[in-house]
Every structure is written in C-alpha cells, then in structure tokens.
Specification:
Layout: H1 4-18, H2 33-45, H3 51-58, H4 62-65, H5 70-87, H6 96-109, H7 112-127, H8 134-152, H9 160-174
Helix pairs in contact: 1-3, 2-3, 2-7, 3-5, 3-7, 6-8, 7-8, 7-9, 8-9
Amino acid sequence: MPTDNDILLEAVSFAARAHRHQLRKDGQTPYVAHPFRVCLVVRHVFGIADPKVLAAAVLHDTIEDTPTDYDDLAERFGPDVAGWAADLTKDMRMPEAEREEAYHARLAAAPWQVAACKLADIFDNMTDSKNLTAAGRERQVRRSREYLDALRGKVPTEVAAAFALTEAKVNEVAATL
C-alpha cells in the first residue's frame, strides 16, 4: 500500500488505466479527464489537500464504471479511500428510481470526505455541461439539485464553503437554460 505521499500518484495511474477505453458524453474527451478534474476541484477550488481525499476523488467512478471493485481499491489504497469511493458508487443493478433513492440516502449519511468528492463531481459536471445538448444540461442540473438536496440537511462544516460554491455553479448553469 502506498504511503500518504504516494497515494495520489498511484490513484491517478490506477484511474487512468481503469478508464483508458472510455470517453465522455461528447464522444471525444477521454473519460479520465473527469476524475482528474474532480480531484483538481477538491484541491484547488475547495482547498482540501488530504492525499486520501484527493485519491478518493480521482477514483470516485472506478467501482461504478469499470471492473474495479471495493476489494481492489482497499488492497491498493486502504479501507478509507475504498469506502469513500464505494459511498460514491451507485448500484447499477437496481432500477433507476430505487438506485437514486438509495444513493441519496447514502450521500446524506456520508462523511465529509465523500461530500467533498460528490460536490466536486457536481461542480465538474456543471463546468463540462457546455458539451451537452440543452436537454442533457437540463437533466444534469435536475440531478445535481437532487444530490445537493440530499446533502443539504447535513452539510458537514468541512465542506460548507464547497457546498456554496457548487450550488452557485449549478444555479449559474441553470440560468442559461
């Protein structure tokens, strides 16, 4: 298992390999640009420097979107990072309505580290929404507001400023619809 100083570099390499054949919805951008940007938002927009949180940010879609599972992440990055990434993972085996309800409940109960990563995920999706159709942007705004609502009741102090920044970004995109 890497040390705290190495964990982020290893996570970046792991995410790059895991997402290597995927593209963003625009069909041109390598998907891995998204988790990399989410990590950058956590660090440079939200000001969170904890290497484990940054690793969870860059790994946040690996369980959901690749053959990676919790055990793969726990073995390489420890139970904290693996657990946070798992909390950011939707169970795609469930019908959409049930899946979203379960995901909202998990977000509402999650530790601040998970909230930070989810807020950065929303922030990046809003930033990147210019590459979506108008209908795609509307859906992205609606979903983002649902996730913000799930977090709203229990915004941890550690991410209160990140919540405000993310909500402002969602409102900014919504105003263009």
